[in-house]
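Ticket opened by: R.M.
Priority: normal
Category: complex prediction / small molecule

The reporter submitted a protein together with adenosine-5'-diphosphate and asked that the result be attached to this ticket for the collaborator who will pick it up next week. Submitted input follows.
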Amino acid sequence: MKLITAVLPASGFERVHEALRTLGIPGVTVTTVFARGVGRVHDEVYRGTRRRVELQPAIRLDLLAADADAADVVHVIAVAGVLGTVWVTPVERAVRIRTREWGEAAL
Amino acid sequence: MKLITAVLPASGFERVHEALRTLGIPGVTVTTVFARGVGRVHDEVYRGTRRRVELQPAIRLDLLAADADAADVVHVIAVAGVLGTVWVTPVERAVRIRTREWGEAAL
Amino acid sequence: MKLITAVLPASGFERVHEALRTLGIPGVTVTTVFARGVGRVHDEVYRGTRRRVELQPAIRLDLLAADADAADVVHVIAVAGVLGTVWVTPVERAVRIRTREWGEAAL
Amino acid sequence: MIPYPSWLNAGDNTWQLVAATLVGLMSIPGIAVLYAGLVQRKWAVNTMLMAFSAFSIVLVAWVLYEFKMSFGSPLHLGPGILNSAVGKPGTITSAGSEIGKAGIPLVSGTGAMPDFRFPQSTLAYFQFAFAAITPLLFLGSVIGRMNFKAWLLFVPLWSGIVYSVNAFLLWGGGWWAQAGALDYSGGYVIHLAAGTSGFVAAAVIGPRLARDRAKAVPNNLPMVAIGAGILWLGWNGFNGGDMYFGGQNAAAAVLNTNLATAVALLTWLLLDMFAGPQRKPTFLGAINGMIVGLVAITPAAGFVTGVGAILVGLIASVIVWLSWNKLGKLRFMQKVDDALGVVHTHGVAGLVGGLLVGLFADPAMAVYYNKDGSVFSVAGLFHGHAKQLLLQLGAAGTIIVWDALMTFVILRAIGLFVKLRAPDEVLEIGDLAVHDEEAYPSEEGLAVVGASEAKAAVVAEPTTRPVAEPAAEP
Amino acid sequence: MIPYPSWLNAGDNTWQLVAATLVGLMSIPGIAVLYAGLVQRKWAVNTMLMAFSAFSIVLVAWVLYEFKMSFGSPLHLGPGILNSAVGKPGTITSAGSEIGKAGIPLVSGTGAMPDFRFPQSTLAYFQFAFAAITPLLFLGSVIGRMNFKAWLLFVPLWSGIVYSVNAFLLWGGGWWAQAGALDYSGGYVIHLAAGTSGFVAAAVIGPRLARDRAKAVPNNLPMVAIGAGILWLGWNGFNGGDMYFGGQNAAAAVLNTNLATAVALLTWLLLDMFAGPQRKPTFLGAINGMIVGLVAITPAAGFVTGVGAILVGLIASVIVWLSWNKLGKLRFMQKVDDALGVVHTHGVAGLVGGLLVGLFADPAMAVYYNKDGSVFSVAGLFHGHAKQLLLQLGAAGTIIVWDALMTFVILRAIGLFVKLRAPDEVLEIGDLAVHDEEAYPSEEGLAVVGASEAKAAVVAEPTTRPVAEPAAEP
Amino acid sequence: MIPYPSWLNAGDNTWQLVAATLVGLMSIPGIAVLYAGLVQRKWAVNTMLMAFSAFSIVLVAWVLYEFKMSFGSPLHLGPGILNSAVGKPGTITSAGSEIGKAGIPLVSGTGAMPDFRFPQSTLAYFQFAFAAITPLLFLGSVIGRMNFKAWLLFVPLWSGIVYSVNAFLLWGGGWWAQAGALDYSGGYVIHLAAGTSGFVAAAVIGPRLARDRAKAVPNNLPMVAIGAGILWLGWNGFNGGDMYFGGQNAAAAVLNTNLATAVALLTWLLLDMFAGPQRKPTFLGAINGMIVGLVAITPAAGFVTGVGAILVGLIASVIVWLSWNKLGKLRFMQKVDDALGVVHTHGVAGLVGGLLVGLFADPAMAVYYNKDGSVFSVAGLFHGHAKQLLLQLGAAGTIIVWDALMTFVILRAIGLFVKLRAPDEVLEIGDLAVHDEEAYPSEEGLAVVGASEAKAAVVAEPTTRPVAEPAAEP
Ligand SMILES: Nc1ncnc2c1ncn2[C@@H]1O[C@H](COP(=O)(O)OP(=O)(O)O)[C@@H](O)[C@H]1O
Ligand SMILES: Nc1ncnc2c1ncn2[C@@H]1O[C@H](COP(=O)(O)OP(=O)(O)O)[C@@H](O)[C@H]1O
Ligand SMILES: Nc1ncnc2c1ncn2[C@@H]1O[C@H](COP(=O)(O)OP(=O)(O)O)[C@@H](O)[C@H]1O
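Result attached by the on-call engineer:
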């Protein structure tokens, strides 16, 4: 089983999320994060004092996938997205608490 | 060493957190995330315009555990929780910055 | 490739971030989390009712590094930081969406 | 051509309308956002909607039957207090009752006060503002679990049955007014009433969810500051308007009100700093002190001197601080979930203020003047009129018993038809379950889904790629 | 020494200044924060700055040319309506026009009303507050895409060309006033005008980004409550001030305004609960109802009795609820992106209110009195004066046509020099792109970087280690 | 029976009380939330509590000794200015001093102005509102590090020693008033004083933490808008009340105030757009401009014509914009951490406004009238009275020197007993350390722990499982 994590610009996130739904991925955990390169670097100026804001709000997406599906999911995200990064880490086991299902059945 | 990640409904989180404390787990990192299936799917209606909110606020819990303890921790979480998902990923090394302790001593 | 995750007190974060920039690490994902031990345990008292707040706001930092660099990055974080924890997990593959670069080229 | 009849004085009419507007602002947005900031985030919308709708309901009830019940001709229901406990219901929606000269049958023309110098619509609107704020105050006792429909029924019933009797007895020339009990502008009629009814209602309706009680932190203190500031300054109209003229007593009432409030705020602040459990000054403590001062001076505002006002502020703040921090922690009091502590800051404070009138009322504080130059004023125990304290006690007892009893009866009666509490699964969620709205909506939740019709547009939106592209340049 | 001349009455002057201040508060902060809370978070700053700057621009235009165009001597442009459609432009910045007695050439001294009892600066400031709120109202139609510079140009042009004609025709003694059309305090001049112009402007400028329209949820409902509360009570000045005296009709107008508003709020609430798609009471629905009540009673406030006010509130709320929930969902209406629905809550409500004056105006509601004791008042269809309804229709038609046309022309003209819309990449980002500011700035973003000069200091700050250290003790 | 004595005019009394209430609202909630929105999130509660407590402290000081020091009989301390620099301290809490006719010994009955038409409590309350807002203004200079206890001591001392002298010299009939220096409603007494004292206090107390200065972004711009809107419209009372009557000059002062403010806001906006570093209109810039306009017109409001008001707004806005953006960036100015820049928007703006009175004061602007029909008014350099400019300079110098010196002395004296700064580890944390409260409390932190007594209940709560269950159905 794999954990696929993607950091995406907020504005491009809908497309990716939609694509994943089409693929039939039900569970996904979404976190709002700050990242670089996902938006225009800009300044904020309050009362004449300028401050550079290099990290922009972004969306982090974590989802578990069976080993066999992982490559597909990454591909889908990479195609649907415009900017951002995706990475894959190995998962040793997963449990869906409600049903107490283990392993890939828990997805 | 393992990283155990759980995504739980906000309302069930206290029970899990309490159970972990009883187990003597000191360190835990808590993130507020959005997840599906952890709350009732509902609509928000502002000024007559209805919008479906499928992802509800949830709590993500990350904690490091020694290889030997990982199964217990997962079990505790699964028993104390009602809904949500838990998964386990391998960790290669960990450092507690204050003491510069490495490995399982850092937990 | 490795994923290096650090949980740091908000006030010490600038130093670590600055150190990483000096090291030339461009991409980093920052999440605001709640953690224990990263700040003073304090009480909040509203209208005479006291409540203990044991988890303080903290900063979580995720960054991908090539296998060869991982140890250095961890070292830099541990030296620049004052409190907090760092851990390293293996990553199987990474993609930079814009360029479709795979693997370490994506960093 | 002249703009208005000769009995009308534009200065007095203006003062009264301004005072009424200030009292209105105390409710909307004052109390609405004060309470919205104090409740849990998940109940802010519910709280505000209850406030806005109660304000509206009371006005409709007021013009249709309640004003006449509070300030009209007495309904003779029996001997003694029953002979003049409430007025005959009736409407005030005709042209005549809007532009004719104001009058209260049992008060005007009896020599108890000078003739009004403004029209009936001014009197009706001014008094409406008081009637409206009362349910909003005790809303603080029942938020976080009361069924919204039950609220919509409770307000007109409570206002018609309970408030109108309070007002008639003390202000409409009813039994207690005839006996000589005093309430300058509502320490009893409004605040003691709100504290009592709120506490009983909280008991009848039952507590919030245990989880909510444990986690009930406020959500927005600057919002509380806005409400508190409007309350304080709005109280210039609340107490300043009850002389019914823009005269010297109105000005003294305003100054005294501010003085008692300042003293009470500072007293609470210092108690928190030097006697409180955490020995720290707190903003919400100061606001509690402020409210206590405002409430306690209300029955006394124009009857006492500046010294009296300082003492009222000091004494009330100490007593309510103890009531809040000691009495309120007792097991007995904890059983009743008076969510925002209205029983302390309004009930106890109003009662203390009302009794202190019986001590401090100073005959040198002229309310009106007789033609011969002598003054109309009142005296308390410290100025040789011990009976006043008894009168104040008696009136307080009447209000407490009547309000507690009828609040209980009305709620039980409503409970026969409508659930008083929202179901637990609704309480778990709060605003979103009751109103499909939340206080601080986030687009993040939606970014994640989007409205179904809109989704296609968004996903296919052609601007996404080109717009995002330049961001990647550096 | 005397403080003021004998033609001046301090009571009336005070009422008028207070009324003006209340109307001013409705704009700033009222509308500014009502709208700031209702728009998407990313547009809150832009919305507020547009409100504050329009308020300022209108005042400058007002004293330099617009007051005279609205209330000065007529400019004879031709026959019929052209003979008295607008006044001659001129300034009112001299000492004489500030402290001299107020006057409207075509109205004062013609026997249409009593002499003013306050100075010209009072009249000018009072009427300014109305002129200023009008662009702020239709700002709700165009937020989220209008180019800020275009707004700065649009406001003085629209106010000078459109608003002054509206005001002159109905209030400055112009053609429709002479014919007998009625608008107590701006149902047509202000609200119908705002609804019409806002809708046309929204059409000309084009819709917001599709993504924004889909995700446009409000960001702060307590902020909306503050704005709404100030609007409601501020309306006491809005409608109470238009008798120009602190008299009986002012008081009746205040009571009627509140009554219609309460009824309209409750009507919308009940419609939402029992006929709405989700069958739930909503806070923003209640606020919509409130605004509809306020707007609909505006043209009628002092002309109708309490019964009339209740009917106006009821009828207007039902009609606008239908307009909002049914008409507004039609494909045709969806094409024009009237962001906050100003065309419904102000346009339709103002029109309905104006027409209902033609039905309910009651001659028993004295506005002024003649020396012989007879009253000056007006009558509608239900009181035997059918023609009034026609007059109301005619005036409405004039306003709609003129305002729609000129709004279109002015915007097209501005569009020749300045882009009416901000570019799409700016719209994607919102406040941060337009103003380098956001509504709720977060230090997290900055913690992450820090200002360049400051960074060195921060990173090197010697306190960091020792201060953080004790935190690790437990 | 009559409501009030014949020397009292309800219109004038109402105007004065309303003006006082408006000024009170400017402090609470106005300044409190304006500053709470502008400071870092971690200091919002501290800022608000400092505002509410200072407001209270000043009132207590005011009635116990300060009013008499500002407006009572002179204390003869020596020759020249010392002969009439401050009044004899005394209380105003007796019945007589509340309901008796108002009077200022050195002014009333000297022919300098007409007799007051309201009671002493009105005068005392009105002037209190000015005394109270002054420390709130310079609070903006010292937030983010001042020890709360030191603040509680500083306010009554500063108010008693510094403010009362300022007020006596210019308004209480003191030396500068006798010499002919003018300050219509506090450009010097309040704003120049606040700017000067704030700057000195910021220097004495020392800067905020370097990390805080670097990251000090505002936290809530809509909150700022609320405060700003209340300030603007509240200023109608601030400047409108200083004629002490509801007359023509009050109305002119109101119009001029708004006019100067509108011009100053637009000037700053345009400077930001066309000369600012980022060439963008900013909301907080506009608010700065607004405050500058309000402050600068304050000393001039009823003395200048509309043209004068426009020029005051324009000139002051340009000068303060330069002061803010150029002077303020100099190393020297950066050393003193005047957190919200009070020295620019109040100090410089008040000074510029005061000097411009010496240029623009127009004798045609009647303040009062003599019985013979001639007017009482004042003239500046451009109207042939060059000496006025010198008087204005002299008075400004006196205020600056006295206020700077005494602020320094008072703080050093307090510093002997109490730390002026909170310790660094407290500053690191902010509100939570000082008050155990934060501005926007989050339940997330608590969800995580819960109160110890409550925890058992929560964990064991039987509803959790069943309630959560249905959520899993789909
Ligand atoms: N494959 C997954 N990857 C990431 N997160 C997941 C995954 N499956 C579940 N989750 C997280 O756990 C939450 C609950 O999971 P779900 O399987 O829907 O539980 P249930 O079936 O009990 O409702 C999801 O909303 C999601 O946040
Ligand atoms: N086992 C763990 N799993 C997940 N997060 C951890 C773990 N141990 C520590 N952390 C994170 O790091 C933070 C600081 O760790 P801690 O070991 O308490 O450091 P210190 O002992 O220096 O205070 C914790 O609050 C937590 O968020
Ligand atoms: N090495 C990394 N570790 C963690 N997150 C990363 C890493 N590289 C990129 N990211 C995340 O993805 C975002 C976009 O990545 P980036 O490589 O800058 O994309 P692009 O070059 O297309 O702008 C970054 O802001 C960061 O949040």
